[in-house]
Amino acid sequence: MLVGHLLFFCNKDFKMGPGLKEEQTKRGSKCFKLTFVFFLLYISSFVVPVTGYVLRSCHVSHINAICIKKRLTAVPQDIPSTVKSLDLFGNKISKIRVSDFKKLSNLTKLKLKWNIISEIDAGSFTNLNSLRELNLNENKFTGLGDNIFEGLGSLTHLRINRNQIKTVASTSFKSLTNLTFLDISGNKLYRITNVHTILQHLPNLLELLVANNNLTSFQSWELTNSSLKLAHLDLSENPIGDFRITADVFPNLTWLNIGGSSKKHHIKWDVRNKTFLRRVSTLDISGLQIPSEDMKTILETFNSSLTTVKMNNMKRTHLTALINISCSIPTVSSLQLKSNNLFFISSNLLQLCFNVTELDLADNPVKNIKDDAFKYLQGITVLALNHNRLSSVPAAIRNLPALQELDLSKNNITTLGCHDFANLTKLRRLSLHQNSISALQGCAFKDLIHLEVLKLQNNSISKLSDAFKKYLPNLRQLRLNSNKLTAIKFGEFKGLRSLQNLSLHENQIQVLEKGCFTGLTNLMDIQLQQNDIKKHKDYKDSFRDLINLKQLDLSDNKIKYDESSALPDPPFSHLSNLETLAFTGNHRKGKSHLPCNFLQGLTNLLHFSGRNLQLLSLHKDIFNHTPKLQKLDISSNELMDLSSELFNPIRNLKSLYISRTNLGSLDFLIGANLTQLEFLQAKKNQFSVFSEEAVESMPALTYLDLQGNSFTCDCDNAWFLQWTENNQQTQVSDAYNFVCNYPPHLKGMKLLKLDIRSCTVDTEFICFISTTCTILLFMVASFTYHFLRWYLAYAYYIFLAFLFDTKHKNKQAPNQYDAFISYNTHDEPWVINQLLPKLEGEQGWRLCLHHRDFEPGKPIIENITDAIYGSRKTICVISCRYLESEWCSREIQVASFRLFDEQKDVLILVFLEDIPNAQLSPYYRMRKLLKRQTYLSWPRASEHPELFWEKLRQALKTREDLGDDEFNLIVTDRP
């Protein structure tokens, strides 16, 4: 409407002043531009803000939304549409509705585990065309209705175990044509016909888990008459008494689990043709309580293809017989015998297992192993004896020359002898963790020339005794953490030239001697956290040889620096390739500092953690040596304030953690140039206001965590509240739980519930008022210019005269000259030949002419002013040339100022030629308004020149009171 009024006005104004087409065109163009601007402003007042990125109950990290254990009763509706993974584990959701996932078309993973869902509305998954994985485990489903999974044509993995499903509708799985994995274990299907209802719509299913469904029989004819692509079938924990396969329904099956029945029972095994299960390579009969005769029948069915047999927890069966039956199958190479109450491994237990290459005897109470117990296992490569009761390394393993992996962890081994691993030259992985080893002999590992991984953690080792000085040339990973080492001496590891990972954390190390890591030029990761290193000198020279080190963890020691002055020998100056340094928790009683050159040499450092150091400040130059730093954690200190200069050297910073640092403001970010910062965690500080400038200084910010701060609930935070709810880039974590701490009457109120309408300006109203006022002002200005412009000009010059003239009056004697002659140089002949002889020669007046009487060297404008104010009157000799002259214009201006200011008749206008009204200057029109008689026309005096000179003499002779109209001149008015 306003725009319409403006256009109407512009059209009306466009018609004013006929004959001035060019001027009208320019005016119309300006009016159109103004109208267009007003139109944009008017439209912008109706723009509706988009939904914000603050979530009430979830946390979003990149493309993952996590809403775990939030007591949600419904799917949140504020999840961003860009999310690809949504985890709703452990809530109280009871029903899935059609609108729940309508906006989440990009989801590929959806986890709804451990809720109380019992119902899914038809069409709830229609928009999830990209979903690949769906987890509905541990809910309250009792049945699956028609087309319950409609729309999930891309789904490949479905987990719906541990529900109470009894019935499955014929079309429940109709849409899942691309499903390859289905876990529907722990339900109450009871009959295999319910499984058939599922399988008939899943042509691409490869893995099916239907364990613990109280299936009492398995009849192949109840499944389907056509072949299935199934490769993996789990029927464990079902009391199957009748297992019949009368058709080739599993031509691709490679993995079959029929174990785990809780009660001892007979099973009728009827597989008419051994070729029906011809491709099964892994058979799991763990926990199956059936007679040995029935077990033999089962095993013989797979005689041609079986490679792995799992017989765990067979406590109620004759295990030796089962082992002999299994090992009689020539293709069996892997045997798993975990949790079988084996106390003793005899010479004959494995006598038929000469084809076995992998043997797992873990989780048994084995105390003794006969020296020749493994003599038949000459080809074995993997042996697991972990979690038994062995007190020493069994001598039986020395007869296994092909062994590559040996697990002796979680036993009671106390010592390692020089011959414990004799002949194991091909061993690559050795696990000895969680034993009771107190010391190592120098010869303990002398034969393990190809060992790559050695696990010795969680023992009681206090001395290394040269165990790593000579041997283990190919070792890449060594774990010695959680032992009782007190010092690492010079050259302790010099034989480990291939070592890449070294774990020494959770020991009692106090000193790292100079050169203790000599020879470890390939080491990339060293863990030294949770030791007792206290002083700089106890570790400063220890890292010099680790030229390829990438990660170093010195956290939770007791290293303390009392001042920030530069160190003469920075501890990491040779670690130019280090990327991650953790130095957290290094403090004793009292406050500490970090030396300004503490990080010197770390030119490639990407991550630095200095949490919980009781730091009072950080030197502004501490990061000068780490230009590539991307992640910085200085939380849990007492910094209270940070300088923007601190961050200037690390402009690539992407993650900043400054929680629990007593900071009262984030204003240091304004000048920090953190344009790459994406993640900021500043929990539990003293922030009360979060400024707009701080946010604008971090244009790449995507995640902001300000939980646990004390916010002020007033207009100072109005911008922050609007930004939190409306911005589409940055997620403000847990913003809906921010509480007010001030003012007192709002303490405890949720920050986002604060009414900020009184703090903000109504944009629509402002646009309305501003456009209306502008249009009205434009109309008034146009009207005034057209009808009243000369009266305004008159008032304007009176005002200027008041300002300009007051400082010039009384500068000179008022009667220095009788008149100042203002003329253009082109009219000089008339002035010299006509005017001057008459007025000075005949009439005797004293005249002031610029070419004769102006003071040389003085500014022109001052000469003009002094001449006009030093003369009783000013005679303006007006011609067309005069009106075009800049200096003539200045002269008549000054004369007009005096005229308006003194209110005296001091201005005489003499026209040398007839001039049209359109060309007359505004000064003549103002003179006409003020005094309509005092001007003369030379062209009209051509017939009576003497009368012209007489009238000019009278004008010069008259008194200067503007109210005195004593004389009548030749010309009384001009049209």
Automatic annotation (TrEMBL):
One Pfam entry name: LRR_8
Entry GO MF terms: signaling receptor activity
The name this protein goes by in its record: Toll-like receptor 22
GO biological process, one term: inflammatory response
UniProt KW Signal keyword: yes
Membership in a protein family: Belongs to the Toll-like receptor family.
Domain of life: Eukaryota
Transmembrane spans: 34-55, 775-804
